[in-house]
Every structure is written in structure tokens, then in C-alpha cells.
């Protein structure tokens, strides 16, 4: 990996590490209990060092760990959170001290090692209405169409949308198609490429206010009329403000046309909504035009299939008790 690529991978890994520590939940609670006056969006590095030091003292693995003090870890914490010194040893300190889930630890490792199949994206929760020409201007003219699209949305035990797994079949409209655009907003933290995806460009393009685009590289180059099935997962960072509608809904905005949309929202059995609707919105920023009540099935999920859509916004939204 080039020096520039190594720096970029460390920066992306550090950004993801900060997201984990700032996300409401046990990781943030662990270090914030050592802060007298915590501030939203700010990580107290000495408090993080307190957590790591306590872990080392309770389970020493090297000489001196049993007596380590938080101030001795200050440079380690600072280097990791900035990306300057986020090596395997530093990563493991955070994983062990905070008890990161396996998939989070794996994602952090892959980012720091420079995986091209996962990218940290920055880009507002509400996607503003934008015209087809805005996308063409930023990402180039349309070179593919979607034959079918399946969104599987996961809502976790705390009521937050954890992520969306998407299966997408595309057809090339132009020769030598080797990538497709992906649009996102600032609620997206990571995009992981899977089946049919070679990787991600990692480059962000400004589409509109709060809306950004990158490109998914295809596993093979397509000729006109050829198809390929893609699988990718989007992970989100939501603060847990359920008065914010964007945290209790999943919309699919179709700026051109789309055939065969299949959408499923699945809830953790310990956290089920009190009410749920399938709806159509007046554009991306407008209100609900029409809706119908939805009942969850035995797998605590709601499902909807649409044969064809054209320049519309549809999806599910729900309420908690």
C-alpha cells in the first residue's frame, strides 16, 4: 500500500473508531462515567484512557499492565483516535477494553488495513429533493438500470436502525460498465461491498446540500444488456432521538424509474413498534401523501413488493410507545 493509501486507511479507521465511541450505548457510557461534564460529540481522551487502563489492570497481559495508569496511555489514545498510530496493538486495546462486537472489531481491522471493500462515508439525515440532472452532473450520465432491488432493514434492541442489506440486480445500458453510483447522506457511517462488488472508489462527490455520492466497483465489466447481482450493506449512526422522523422510517427515493422493489423491515423481538405504516411521500422533503396500516408477521417484520416505480418516494415508518 502507498504511503498516501496507508494514511487514508488509518484516517478512515480512526473515524469509525470515533463513531463507535460516540454512538449512544455501552461504549460511550463506559468512558462518559469518568467525565464530570460530558459534551455531545466530544470524546474525552483521558476518560477513554481510564477505561483501557482499568481493563489492563484487571487482565494484565504484559509486565507493567497491572500498575498502568491512565496518563501513561494518553499518547496511545490520542494516536489511535487521530489515526496517526492506529496499529494492531492499539486496536486490540480498544476492542478488549470496550468489548466491541466481533463485526465491529472486524470492520475496524479491515478499515485500518486498507480494505477497498469497505468505506467510511460522511455526507444530514434528510435527503433533499434533487433533480436527475444534478446526479448526472456530479456522477456522469446514466449507464445502467436496476432490474430488481431488495432492501432488508434491521432495527436493533435499542430501537435504532442498525443497517440495511441490499441485493440489487443491474443491467448495463452502455458498454464497458465497471461501476455504479451510490448516493448517501450523513447518517451513513459505512458502506460494505459484498457479492458482485470489486470494491469502492472511496471518493465522495457533492450532489446537493447534505447529499454525497461515491461509486461501487463491479466484480466484472459488463457489456450492453449484461446483468450482475450486487450485495452491499449500509450501516448508520443515529443518536437515538426518536422524535426525529428519520430515525423511525426507511424510505426509498426513486429519482428516475425502478422495477421490482422488495422492501422488508425486521425488528428485534424485544423492541417492537406500537404502530407502523407503509407510505408514499410528497418528494424527499415533503409530507406523507397516503399511508396504510401495517401488521408485523411472525418474524417481527413487515414486507412490501412493488412491480414498478417512477420518480416517487415510498417506504415504512413506525412509532414507539
| Strand elements, count | 13
CATH structural fold name of the largest domain:
Immunoglobulin-like
Compute the number of structural domains. Answer: 2
Helix content class = 10-25%
Report how far apart the termini are: 50 Å
Radius of gyration: 21 Å
Average of per-residue pLDDT values: 85
The number of helices is 7
List unreliable stretches of 5+ residues.
Answer: 122-131
CATH-defined architecture of the largest domain: Sandwich
Give the ordered list of helices and strands: HHHHHHEHEEEEEEEEEEEE
Describe the structure.
The chain is an alpha+beta fold. The chain has two domains: 3-115, no CATH class; 132-319, Immunoglobulin-like (Sandwich), CATH 2.60.40. Helix content is 25%, strand content 38%. The chain has seven helices and 13 strands. It has a nine-stranded mixed β-sheet with strand order 1-5-9-3-2-10-13-11-12, covered by helices on one side. Strands 4, 6, 7 and 8 form a four-stranded antiparallel β-sheet that branches. A hairpin with a 2-residue loop joins strand 7 (205-208) and strand 8. Helix 1 (3-22) runs antiparallel to helix 6, helix 3 (45-58) crosses helix 4 (74-82) and helix 3 (45-58) crosses helix 5 (88-98). The longest helix is centred in the N-terminal third of the chain and has 20 residues, at 3-22. It is globular.
